[in-house]
């Protein structure tokens, strides 16, 4: 496999727009900024769209050499155990399947990281920028588990779903990747095209607990 | 609802996350050009439909999106065994019958 050569930074497409073009998230039309200003300030479920992040899908069966290259590129080792994740200040890495990881960085860093990957990583692998196709919802609050229970069949008991665990699963009539960030804070990585549907779903599911939107 | 063990995620998940993908252990003829129409037709279209132990391919469609094998009883729906692609089942029809 090591005879596959991945060359030239031309493989990387710069998806960042020019500085004078304002990025619009999949929930731009919902105008969450003014909802957060005028809506309730206290409630059982808090919703925040972490918008315009840089998301990269890494697929490979890493050799020992590749593992150390990835670690130096990302500043953190790949989580190799099923359903685990690594979160640092700069980067979040989510285990998706035995040969697939989701890498989340700040939006403007994705292109830079991609370029550095192609420059320095050897061997057979694939790195795809999926930033344009996804967005991230952060849901938190004292009632967040009750809201999630209505939406997904995954067992969310702390014994089964500790902080740091990642699952890809069904959510409402769509699919998401759920990561538990803190005791009562979860990250949902959702498809762009399902973002509006899931936002409506979460509003409905949270109604009885009180939904607070955070800008 | 089934609670199905995914050998890649190493935990039980709801059936909702999975899809059945038909009979497993079907080897593609190494040289399709050398097959007779009958051999090729049987490879393409003919599947076992046993009453009892059946080896099936399932995919964890909403999860890790990996395929794996399931030994399932078509009569009772009981899942006897889950094993990865490339492995051989330990539970087979004759063994059950001789119990």
Automatic annotation (TrEMBL), chain A:
Identification of the protein by name: Heterotetrameric sarcosine oxidase gamma subunit
Protein species of origin: Marinomonas alcarazii
Gene3D superfamilies: Heterotetrameric sarcosine oxidase (3.30.70.1520), Probable tRNA modification gtpase trme, domain 1 (3.30.1360.120)
UniProt superkingdom: Bacteria
One Pfam family linked to the record: SoxG
Automatic annotation (TrEMBL), chain B:
BP term (GO), one: tetrahydrofolate metabolic process
Gene3D superfamilies: Folate-binding superfamily
Molecular functions (GO terms): sarcosine oxidase activity
Name the UniProt record assigns to this protein: Heterotetrameric sarcosine oxidase delta subunit
Organism: Marinomonas alcarazii
């Amino acid at each position: 496999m090591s005879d596959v050569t991945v060359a030239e930074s031309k493989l990387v497409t710069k998806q960042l727009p020019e500085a004078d073009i304002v990025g619009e998230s999949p929930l731009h039309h919902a105008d969450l900024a003014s909802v957060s200003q005028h809506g309730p300030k206290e409630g059982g479920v808090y919703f925040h769209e972490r918008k315009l992040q840089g998301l990269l899908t890494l697929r490979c069966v890493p050799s020992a050499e590749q593992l150390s290259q990835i670690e130096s590129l990302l500043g953190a080792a790949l989580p190799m155990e099923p359903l685990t994740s690594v979160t640092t200040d700069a980067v979040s890495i989510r285990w998706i399947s035995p040969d697939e990881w989701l890498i989340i960085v700040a939006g403007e860093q994705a292109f830079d990281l991609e370029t550095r990957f192609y420059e320095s990583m050897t061997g057979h692998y694939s790195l795809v920028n999926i930033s344009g196709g996804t967005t991230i919802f952060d849901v938190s609050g004292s009632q967040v588990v009750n809201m999630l229970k209505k939406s997904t069949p995954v067992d969310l008991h702390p014994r089964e779903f500790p902080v740091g665990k990642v699952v890809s699963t069904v959510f409402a009539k769509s699919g998401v990747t759920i990561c538990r960030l803190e005791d009562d804070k979860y990250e949902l990585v959702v498809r762009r095209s399902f973002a509006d549907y899931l936002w409506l779903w979460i509003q409905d599911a949270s109604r009885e607990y009180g939904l607070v939107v955070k800008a | 609802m089934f609670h199905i063990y995914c050998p890649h995620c190493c935990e039980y998940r709801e059936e909702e996350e999975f899809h059945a993908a038909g009979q497993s252990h079907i080897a593609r003829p190494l040289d399709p050009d050398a097959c007779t129409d009958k051999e090729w037709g049987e490879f393409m279209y003919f599947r076992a439909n046993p009453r009892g132990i059946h080896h099936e391919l399932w995919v964890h469609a909403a999860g890790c999106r990996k395929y794996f094998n399931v030994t399932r009883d078509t009569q009772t729906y009981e899942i006897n065994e889950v094993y990865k692609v490339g492995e051989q089942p330990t539970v087979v029809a004759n063994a059950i019958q001789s119990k």
